[in-house]
Design goal:
heterotrimer, A alpha+beta (155), B mainly alpha (267), C mainly beta (103), B: 267 residues, mainly alpha, Cytochrome Bc1 Complex, Chain D, domain 2, three-stranded mixed β-sheet, two-stranded antiparallel sheet, 11 helices, 7 strands, globular, disordered N terminus, C: 103 residues, mainly beta, Immunoglobulin-like, three-stranded antiparallel β-sheet, 0% helix, 50% strand
């Protein structure tokens, strides 16, 4: 059991209960195995977030595309899509630079799944949105500015 | 808290919010944003709940709403909302979707209308009614608004709605027209439709009920109007009262022939 | 108990597109209620989607994902009538699983 895992259990976070549920046969074990990346979601600095994702300083790549509006009417719901045209894409992460906790979501892309995901995120203010892609063990990224007229973090 | 929001909204009629001053109004184009939200509108979650409620036996009479006549035949939901409000012979009244559903809940299920009229938005039976609204309007999405104004009672309501629309009242001496009779008017970044034109009326009428991303709530037209009465700083209208239905007849009637986008998704 | 998800899955030209709406508050833990008390964080942390028995997507969410989360993704293959199952779990241990047939 690594250090991060123990922390999560102590805090009674998602993984702890998840593990218990799995042990009780209430959920499938493969869900419990996927440990929530607390270090990444708690990161308040871009460097910390990148290192928690294992990404270091990823190179900007034109093969990573972000679909998001140039301007959002309300920051509470900002649509963000990421497409990676890099072969063997394994994961995609979405980060919002100016959010207090910048990592919004991470996606594991198994073989056979298209590297094309869309979700919606909260944005407290106008910010760059980052997409970080892992493919064949290497990291790539793209960014796009989204203007927000009304912040959506509600404090 | 709510009071400050109102004051800000009204104050902003003349002033632009400070963070907006830097952006020219041609930069405030939210079309791409709205289009991306239309697919997967969270209002669908309310629609699902509404569909379930429609088919579930409930209330003192333990009945479903599947025999409810929304104007196009008992149990017919398809296209019903596009023709509402309308005159109903069985009640002798002009009813909008909310008041008609309320009537069905009372007659078929035995759920007293008073419970809804005296209730609060998004709570209890009024909350359930809103989910039913989401279900019914979804089945008129993309249909043309087609409100029949030929019945004398409908004419009467249309005229009353028009009067109310221009009637100045409240602490600010505002009418609906104060905020909704110019093209391209904005409060903060929000564009307000010019409801005195057919296109503008259709824009307002045909995009509510809606899911509001700012607070993750689903609002019916009754809720939208109630909030505009508050914007106007007048007394709150009674839920599903004739004034609110008259305004709806006015807007729907003016918007006739335009396509409804139901349910909408709004800021 | 958490409310049901709305899942749509449609196969076209050998690719199945899945769109999911989840009913969840996604509370950040940074907001205060009217009395000034912090509203505790409550958000979906993990999500798994399966096509028949194969995992086709797993995701981790932080509190920055919007209330009533939306997710869309695509996987190769999938035929009409196949099962797509989506499960999530949140930081309080609530969970929800729903399934749909590919259209």
């Amino acid at each position: 059991m690594n250090h991060q895992r123990r922390d999560t259990l102590k805090a009674g976070g998602g993984l702890g209960i998840f593990g218990l549920l799995a042990a009780a046969g209430m959920i499938k074990p493969e869900m419990a195995e996927a440990a929530w990346n607390k270090a990444a979601f708690d990161a308040h600095k871009m460097d910390d977030a990148m290192s928690a994702l294992g990404a270091g300083k990823p190179a900007e790549s034109a093969d990573v595309q972000i679909t998001a509006p140039d301007i959002a009417e309300n920051g509470a719901v900002v649509p963000v899509g990421v497409v990676s045209n890099i072969a063997n894409t394994e994961s995609i992460a979405i980060l919002i630079e100016k959010n207090p906790a910048m990592v919004a979501a991470t996606f594991d892309i198994p073989a056979g799944t298209v590297a094309d995901v869309q979700t919606r995120v909260k944005m407290g203010q106008t910010s760059d949105v980052y997409a970080v892609v892992k493919a064949d063990g290497k990291f790539y990224m793209a960014k796009k500015e989204v203007k927000v007229t009304l912040g959506g973090c509600g404090g | 808290m709510k009071k400050t929001i109102m004051a800000v909204a009204i104050g902003a009629v003349a002033l632009t919010a400070p963070n907006m001053q830097a952006m020219a109004s041609e930069d405030l184009n939210f079309d791409a944003y709205r289009q991306m939200l239309a697919d997967g509108n969270p209002a669908e979650l309310f629609e699902m709940e509404g569909e379930e409620l429609w088919r579930t036996a409930r209330g003192p009479k333990n009945a479903t709403l599947e025999q409810c006549d929304l104007g196009v035949g008992a149990g017919v939901v398809d296209g019903a909302a596009a023709q509402l409000p309308r005159f109903f012979a069985d009640t002798g009244k002009v009813q909008d979707l909310e008041s008609r559903l309320m009537h069905c809940m009372e007659t078929l299920q035995g759920i007293p209308s008073a419970e809804i009229i005296n209730g609060k938005f998004r709570q209890g039976e009024r909350g359930k009614l809103a989910s039913l609204v989401a279900y019914v309007v979804t089945h008129s999405n993309g249909k043309k608004v087609q409100v029949d104004l030929s019945h004398p009672k409908m004419k009467e309501m249309y005229d009353m709605g028009e009067k109310v629309f221009y009637y100045r009242t409240g602490a600010m001496d505002f009418s609906c027209a104060s905020c909704h009779s110019q093209d391209g008017k904005r409060i903060r970044a929000t564009q307000l439709p010019n409801i005195t034109t057919s296109k503008g009326a259709a824009e307002g009428w045909g995009s509510w009920p809606a899911y509001r991303v700012s607070n993750s709530q689903f609002w019916t037209m009754q809720h939208r109007l109630w909030d505009c009465f508050r914007q106007q700083r007048t007394a709150e209208p009674v839920f599903a009262s004739d004034v609110t239905i008259a305004l709806s007849v006015f807007m729907a009637g003016k918007g006739n022939g335009y396509e409804a986008v139901w349910p909408g998704v709004k800021r | 108990m958490a409310n049901p998800m709305r899942i749509r899955a449609a196969a076209k030209d050998g690719v199945t597109e899945v769109r999911v709406l989840m009913s969840h508050v996604m509370e950040t833990g940074q907001r205060k209620d009217s009395s000034g008390a912090v509203i505790p964080a409550h958000f979906i942390t993990e999500l798994t989607a399966k096509h028949n028995d194969k995992v086709v997507l797993s995701a981790q969410f932080g509190p920055s994902v919007s209330t009533n989360p939306y997710l869309a993704f695509k996987f190769n293959g999938g035929a009409k009538g196949d099962k797509v199952v989506v499960s999530w779990v949140d930081n309080k241990g609530d969970s929800r699983t729903d399934e749909v047939q590919v259209a």
